[in-house]
Amino acid sequence: MTEKLVIIGNGMAPGRMLEHLFEKAPGQFDVTIFNAEPRVNYDRIMLSPVLSGEKTFEEIVIHGDGWYVANGVTLYKGHKIVAIDRAARTVTSDHGVTESYDRLVIATGSVPFIIPVPGHDLPGVLSYRDLDDVQAMLLAAQSRAKAVVIGGGLLGLEAAAGLSMQGMDVTVLHVMPTLMERQLDPAAGYLLQKAVEERGIKVMTKANTKAIVGNGKVEGIELADGTIVPATLVVMAVGIRPNAALAKDAGLTVNRGIVVDAGMQTSDPDIFALGECAEVGGQVYGLVAPLYEMARVTAARLAGEEGTGFVHSDTPTKLKVTGIDLFSLGDFADGDDRQEIVLRDASAGVYKRLVLKDNRIIGTVLYGETADGAWFNDLKKKGTDISEMRETLIFGQAYQGGSPLDPMAAVAALPDDAEICGCNGVCKGKITGTITARRLTSLDDVRAHTKASASCGSCTGLVEKLMVLTLGDTYNPAAVQPMCSCTTLGHDEVRRLIKAKGLKAIPAVMQELEWKTSCGCAKCRPALNYYLVADWPDEYADDYQSRFINERVHANIQKDGTYSVVPRMWGGVTNSHELRAIADVVDKFDIPMVKVTGGQRIDMLGIRKEDLPAVWADLGQAGFVSGHAYAKGLRTVKTCVGSDWCRFGTQDSTGLGIRIEKFMWGSWTPAKVKMAVSGCPRNCSEATCKDVGVICVDSGFEIHFAGAAGLDIKGTEVLGQVKTEDEALEHIVALTQMYREQGRYLERIYKWAKRVGLDEIRRQIMDDGEKRRAYYERFVFSQKFAQVDPWSERVSGKDKHEFRPMASVGFAEAAE
Amino acid sequence: MSTMNWIAIGTITDIPQRGARCVATPQGKIAVFRTAEDRVFAIEDHCPHKGGPLSQGIVHGAAVTCPLHNWVISLETGKALGADDGAVKTIPVRVDGERLFIALEALADRAA
Ligand code: SRM
Ligand SMILES: Cc1cc2nc3c(=O)[nH]c(=O)nc-3n(C[C@H](O)[C@H](O)[C@H](O)COP(=O)(O)OP(=O)(O)OC[C@H]3O[C@@H](n4cnc5c(N)ncnc54)[C@H](O)[C@@H]3O)c2cc1C
Ligand code: SF4
Ligand code: FES
Fold first, then answer.
1. At which positions is siroheme bound (chain A) (predicted)?
2. Are residues B104 and A809, on separate chains, in Cβ contact within 8 Å?
């Protein structure tokens, strides 16, 4: 017979409990959930990335609406339970819904603690607990004004980092002398403070808030010493209290939290409590790992199993601020019976400390380099006697047993019961076992089946290494190919983070996204340079040392080290004046080869690098600009003679081609972009194998895209048809801008289009006029900075060092 | 006896960071590199693969990627890194304050 299970609260703890329960006892319960928050179960831990803009809310949902339907769960969103009637065995919500239960689970979590200073209830004072808080902060951040975060613990610092990434001027007030003093010793707290300050966040320690001041809304904070810190937003992150009032009113035993036994049962045998609201063994908890353990126990008891009860274990703390690595575990206070091992590397910003008692690790603080956290945690949990390896212990696992191991070998050497995912308590054996048993091949599958790396994600690297170990070469890491061996991030991730974090220089990208090399390589540097040029056209200073030689000197390098020069011939049209100028240049500089290109213009090959500026000067005199035959940018727009001459021509294809080329030249793109306009479907300019092509027809212009005729041959796809030249231009420009914003470096339009989907592109460019217009405007804006003829710039002296030897050593000097 | 013949070629600021300049000598071009950390190296401007001008490549760490076919050459040893085999000659460099000198001992030998 199905029993009626009612749950109060829909947070991470009961969500996990239900997963276990549906697995153990499918169909045993008819489940109803009341949640005061008007939404489904989401990963509360990941609110900070949502605040900073690194993730969206959709990405952190744990159970979407479909999950509740599929499992027959009734979820009352936005219903707060106001009374439990234990005699009648019912609960009642603030909207008046009453539901009876056979078993009741209380999972009301915590409430943020608000310091009861004067002004604490002014508009503009927030706590940091749920999505509503995040949304309110994001709204406040739009004003780019000043924010004060009270509390320099985990939550406070994550809030401060997020607000600062959203452009606010942030000050953190912390009452203790060092940050995160409950998790870090003063040395690590100091390093953390430095790192926080380097992000432009002000930190005031020993700052005791006396009052929040303001007239009708927050204007500032008054400290005990009389200092006033101005603020339009105040976030209080000073701690949490188990949310146990409802249980207390119902007459259950409540101490700090709702008191439960090791089987998560309250003083009423039909009522369980779990999560942050529960107190077990005299302890309350605020990190998910122990809550998930409670979830496992509760599900087992509800399913009628006896099994092991809840046991306490220490959970490591990590701060989820991108670029700050810290790890803290256990007890690290000084004591007579304790010894410590410390390692400092000031230049690398690394600090590590192990606290030992009776030759066993009891506490660990790692700052700057945290890779060995899992290993120290394992040694601590097992109580391993470390006397044998005492000398090298602090250097980490890689140093044990002779020569340093590579990171792969270090993971291979972990025992099967080593904990990999702290949040979900998943050990190595479980991960490798599940991969093999279920033949898992993707990271998402491993997350789904083992829960490893499914919460805060800080163990993703370890999990991926295990996948490589288990699957060997068949594992293609995460489908996301890293940009190059300098990073683990893929192109899309890097592009997203450049925007989200407002990174505007290559060193900033490398620092913030934790590049593994000091200054990148020939693969990532040109890509990053492009992304920054494309994303911040007005603010980014192009880094020429990160461009390939062709783009650096605006000519194509040849096999013998000479260069070729291709001037623009708009739409392939020229005249006697231009041809004469070319002829003169060829004679003057003794250019060995002149060739008509496949792109309807003239190529002069075999020019010595030293001569380039002079060649350009002469060509410039005749009105030529660079043809960008070397660029990941707009190349040519091929045309045919069209309605001006041809008996079949339907529109002025030559004129449109020239117009497009004049509008778009100089723009940088992920890979080269070639276009063409044909005057009729006979298609003499071969528009149907170009990145973008136009086929003129009587009624207007058919716009094509995503063709290729190089390494791959591919006919174009039709984007759509428009009536006027103006519309044709707007659509083509918008399409190119969309590609500029989304393309991966060196990915041509046809590959990008395949990846994002033709329909999606048509939807945004053809159907959504507003989007199209916005793309168009962004392109026009960036052209203000891009449409500068690089040749005339060089003629007037820019980068002159490129074209001259630094010194010439004569024969006599050399022989001396 | 071999002597070191130090020849002044200019100052470190003549070379952009993560860039290179050439020095013409009777034996061909020498590429002088300056890394992001202001270390200076000189090697023959002639890729061991097919003679590409290494001075035109992208400089990263203490290495340069050849502009023609992307071999990566160590500036410290002149050797090709990774799977490729080959090496170019390295030329001793001395940095004295801002000023740069290269040693042309071998050139002198060959020239003599
Ligand atoms: C000069 C020219 C050949 C000719 O003598 O006609 C040419 C010459 C080169 N092509 Fe091309 N391509 C030329 C038209 C083409 C065309 C035809 C066209 O544009 O109508 C194609 C096929 C169409 C296409 O791109 O889809 C073409 C497909 C390629 C490819 C393959 C690209 C691909 O993604 O599949 C490369 C390699 C690359 O870019 O990585 C390439 C690369 C090159 C490079 C840049 C090779 C290099 O990296 O040094 C050559 C430079 C020689 C130089 O110094 O000028 N070239 N190349 C043509 C210059 C057109 C212009 O005026 O700008
Ligand atoms: C910003 C932030 C970052 C964090 N980072 C980490 C981290 O890195 N690592 C980590 O381990 N932990 C982290 N935590 C803590 C972790 O999120 C919590 O421990 C965990 O979510 C608590 O789960 P819970 O199910 O007990 O309660 P909650 O997730 O708080 O769920 C309680 C739910 O019950 C609802 N509710 C309350 N009263 C009633 C009522 N009377 N009727 C109906 N519904 C009610 C509430 O609206 C709420 O939705 C973080 C927390 C925050 C806020
Ligand atoms: S096809 Fe293009 S890349 Fe190949 S040799 Fe000819 S010009 Fe060079
Ligand atoms: S010539 Fe240098 S890589 Fe080919």
1. 684
2. yes
